[in-house]
Amino acid sequence: MKKIIKLTESDLTRIVKQVINEMGNNTNPPMSGYDIFLRLINGGGTSQYKVQKVISACNSSKFPMNTYTNKIADMIYDGISEKTAGILPSTNENMVFTALRRARTLDEFCGVVKSYRDSYGQDLYDALDGDFDLESEWIQIMRPLRDLGTKAQRSMSTKNTPKYPTPTGSGGTRSTPNTKTGSSGLRPTSKPSPKNPVPLPNRFR
Known about the structure:
The protein is mainly alpha-helical and 205 residues long.
């Protein structure tokens, strides 16, 4: 039988600080916040545990809320609070999954976390935990967050990639030809007209 270890919030904080300190002593280039996020989301543990870590980080972030994050939070709440035949509460899983996929960036998802807490007085993870139990359900919640992290990482890599001029075969750079003067910088001469041929020198007559 596997041994279950329960971690408190202080334990998680201590582990994260230890990882950051170890990374600081490493000679490799420092990882970005998105790299750290992907290491956590793609690491070990259940999908539910990964979602909990992400939402916990969002709660302590400074990402702003707006009307769009409020709409996503409302959709999640409606999906969780939906009632069968208007009487019995029954979670609409598809509505919740669809709402979570509408966040376009990690920053925006963190805004959704704050919108839900401010609008309905409950932490988003606690709300999800009260209605989702199966790992297959938590996987559907975790995947959009993983994809947002991957998207953000690629975007950062693209911005940090230096742009170099296109080299030519001789080792120089490719220049744009001048349509008026030509590549040599001299204005090209016009071709002789067939009606007015160029006169030959006397020795060729």
